[in-house]
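Hi V.,

Quick status before I head out on leave. The structure for the redesign project is tokenized and pasted below; the design run finished overnight.
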């Protein structure tokens, strides 16, 4: 009976962690070697459910309004992930106020990619061990599938390593968002539902509805956003050109830069992480940087870190592979 009780207790705890990701855990360093490298199905059922809900496009149908909102939600939330979760929380490439910092964390949380502390702590570990065995999403160490999404489903990577983000963990509001990391995504989905309901009543000519907008505006856009973001973990270490001689296999790819609003200039970023801008040259499209520049003109953020001329000059190397 003891194995059965242990199993049931584990399953119950997994369900509780859908809503309180810190429940029953000690916030201590985690990572490779601290747990089995396998999918924990009970823990990732919501993640799988978000993917499965996309099949309901065949039930709710199609409208240009729903597709337009889907695209807008992809772009806005991609900017929140790349500009806020990545360039601010992970790398602190610019400064802002505590109030705007909180709003940026909420915006990033709408992407349904866990909380700001979890995201930043894993990303900082990635840069410490890029393409080494300790890098949990290196395609060279763990294969393409695992680097793209498998690592997210493994128990060794569920918890937040607060020791990697002491500068962020001192803010109670950020800890709250990180612990209850499904709250903002739930509210985002609800907002899409009510948007569709309102448009169905006030603008019936658009041909949309509450459930159609929920499926397209939240579920489809979230899945596209997730896989678009994860191409930087996986494909940007496999395809593209290496301008700078970094210690890892990071690459620059204009295709991935388009998909991720500028994150595809990954070799640039690994060569010099401190810059707000990742497209080092004018021809390297970096939409996220342009958006952050606009926010700086509005006075919401400041002290955007530039790319020094000597860094940009670097030690050019343009070979493939």
């Amino acid at each position: 009976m003891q194995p059965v009780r242990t199993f049931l207790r584990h399953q119950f705890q997994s369900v509780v962690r859908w809503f309180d990701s810190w429940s029953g855990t000690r916030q201590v360093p985690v990572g490779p070697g601290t747990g089995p490298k396998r999918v924990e199905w009970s823990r990732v059922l919501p993640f799988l459910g978000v993917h499965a809900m996309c099949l309901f496009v065949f039930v709710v149908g199609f409208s240009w309004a729903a597709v337009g909102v889907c695209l807008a939600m992809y772009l806005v939330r991609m900017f929140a992930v790349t500009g806020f979760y990545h360039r601010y929380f992970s790398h602190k490439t610019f400064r802002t106020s505590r109030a705007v910092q909180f709003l940026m964390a909420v915006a990033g949380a709408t992407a349904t990619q866990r909380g700001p502390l979890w995201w930043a702590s894993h990303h900082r570990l990635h840069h410490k061990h890029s393409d080494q065995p300790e890098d949990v999403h290196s395609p060279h160490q763990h294969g393409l599938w695992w680097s793209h999404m498998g690592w997210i489903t493994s128990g060794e990577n569920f918890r937040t390593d607060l020791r990697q983000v002491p500068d962020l963990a001192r803010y109670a509001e950020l800890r709250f968002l990180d612990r209850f990391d499904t709250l903002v995504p739930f509210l985002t989905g609800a907002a899409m539902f009510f948007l569709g309901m309102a448009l169905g009543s006030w603008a019936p000519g658009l041909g949309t509805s509450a459930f159609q907008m929920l499926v397209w505006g939240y579920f489809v856009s979230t899945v596209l956003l997730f896989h678009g973001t994860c191409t930087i973990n996986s494909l940007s270490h496999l395809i593209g050109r290496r301008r700078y001689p970094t210690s890892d296999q990071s690459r620059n790819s204009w295709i991935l830069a388009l998909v991720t609003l500028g994150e595809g200039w990954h070799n640039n970023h690994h060569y010099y992480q401190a810059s707000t801008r990742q497209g080092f040259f004018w021809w390297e499209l970096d939409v996220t940087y342009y958006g952050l520049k606009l926010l700086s003109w509005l006075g919401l953020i400041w002290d955007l870190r530039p790319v020094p001329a000597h860094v940009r000059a670097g030690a050019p190397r343009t070979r493939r592979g």
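Above is the designed sequence. The first strand starts at residue 95 and ends at 96.

G. will cover questions while I'm gone.

Best,
W.
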